[in-house]
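=== How it folds ===
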Amino acid sequence: MSAAAATIFEVERLEAKFGFLYKWLVQCSPSGNVPGSHELVESDVKALLQLHEPNDATLDAKLNDVLANQAKTLPLAAFQQYMVTKRPIDNLEEKLKLPSSLS
């Protein structure tokens, strides 16, 4: 596991990190409650990225990266693809499994 992935799942701020993942996973479903149908505006993308890393000094660079060519909206599927391919979290499926005592 990379050092970056280990940082993402540290106990500190764990609730906020899982909140980000939960919101993202809920939005993956066809019944997900996404403002403006399945289009995210810049403020939606920024809020999702800030939930993931509240004090991110590279937030503007990430916004420019995900909202290429100064697009005003982003399809939800494109944001999900961005998070999976450009900002992957190592072993995400394994990390999201509940401990056996809770399942």
